[in-house]
Design a protein that fits this description.
By secondary structure, this protein is mainly α. The protein has helices at about 5-25, 30-40, 45-80, 90-105, 115-135, 140-165, 165-175, 185-205, 205-215, 215-220, 225-250, 255-265, 270-295, 305-325.
Length: about 325
């Protein structure tokens, strides 16, 4: 498939799923009524559409695009199809920040305390990773620093849960870590959007560098690509998009791992083309998963992260099996 056709198809798929996301919900609003209430004031119906369904659909696009884009960038930089955005420890650190906010009661002080705490923890993780990896460290040093930060953040999160004297707080922490887009508002959209936008710009600018790096570090350097600047943009960009996504949606896995892996053969394995394709593919996948959450068990609070893990793990195992058969 040609690249423009693929991008157009993915964009149309995202648009269709976005509209469906606006039309599906427990309120049982007819499609015509839903679209009318979205465009003009219809009282309670307009509140449901503009304050509940619309921000949820927008966040699904933002989170999915962020995870897909960051996954493609990580796999391109490390030249490893098994790399994923959580590898540098930002998502685990953002989760730790949110868990601490929930446990200490800070999350109850104002509406955005939880996502802001998660973003602050993600920013601290970036500083630690850059200090540990060093300004001129290799990709291996970056991976090791990320694994160390991720393990530490995971251990501290478990410690908070283990020592929590309040079972209700512990229950809230567990449910938040499962990942969800329910009960999100435009306040969450506006909190995450500036940080994500910065990350999108940084990651989108990596296309030429990642194309050169696919030929090897020496070849990339001979093409005039500054590998230190490339790595700095990558780390900060991934931290922005993944930290913001985790801050507003909790832990949602497998998007940044599976989507680039599926789309890579369709773009000729060129990282510069995979970046926009993976962003659109990730947005479509999260929109579809969030729709499924509302349709599969409408009377139960099925979490987005749980569904993604249940679907993503078998898909990824199938991809690995196909890869082994072609070797």
């Amino acid at each position: 498939m040609r690249f423009p056709a693929l991008v157009t198809l993915l964009a149309l798929l995202c648009a269709a799923l976005f509209v469906l996301s606006l039309l599906v919900g427990p309120a049982g609003i007819a499609p015509g009524q839903a679209l009318t209430a979205l465009l003009r004031d219809e009282g309670a119906l307009t509140m449901v559409m503009r304050e509940i369904r619309l921000p949820r659909a927008i966040l699904a696009v933002m989170v999915g695009a962020s995870l897909g884009l960051s996954g493609a960038a990580m796999q391109g930089y490390l030249r490893n199809p098994l790399a994923e955005p959580g590898l540098i420890g930002v998502s685990a650190s953002a989760a730790l920040g949110a868990v601490i906010a929930l446990q200490t009661g800070f999350a109850a002080t104002f509406a955005l305390a939880l996502p802001l705490s998660a973003l602050a923890a993600a920013g601290l993780a970036v500083l630690l990773i850059l200090m540990l990896a060093g300004p001129g460290g290799s990709a291996l040093a970056l991976i090791l620093a990320g694994v160390a930060i991720s393990a530490l953040a995971g251990a501290l999160t478990s410690l908070v849960l283990n020592l929590s004297p309040n079972p209700f707080a512990a229950n809230e922490i567990v449910f938040w870590m499962m990942g969800s887009l329910a009960d999100r508002s435009f306040a969450h959209v506006l909190t995450a959007l500036p940080v994500m936008a910065l990350g999108w710009v940084l990651l989108a600018s990596l296309g030429r560098g990642l194309d050169g790096l696919s030929l090897g570090e020496d070849a990339a350097a001979s093409m005039g690509i500054n590998l230190r600047v490339l790595r700095l943009r990558l780390v900060i960009g991934v931290a922005c998009v993944v930290g913001a996504a985790t801050a507003v949606a909790g832990a949602v896995g497998f998007v940044g791992l599976v989507v680039p892996h599926v789309l890579r053969p369709l773009v000729g394995a060129r990282p510069s083309r995979l970046l926009p394709a993976a962003a659109l593919g990730g947005a479509a996948l999260v929109l579809a998963a969030d729709l499924s959450v509302r349709l599969v068990l409408p009377d139960r609070d099925l979490k987005l992260g749980v569904l993604m893990a249940m679907v993503g793990a078998p898909v990824f195992l199938h991809l690995i099996w196909r890869l082994r058969r072609t070797e």
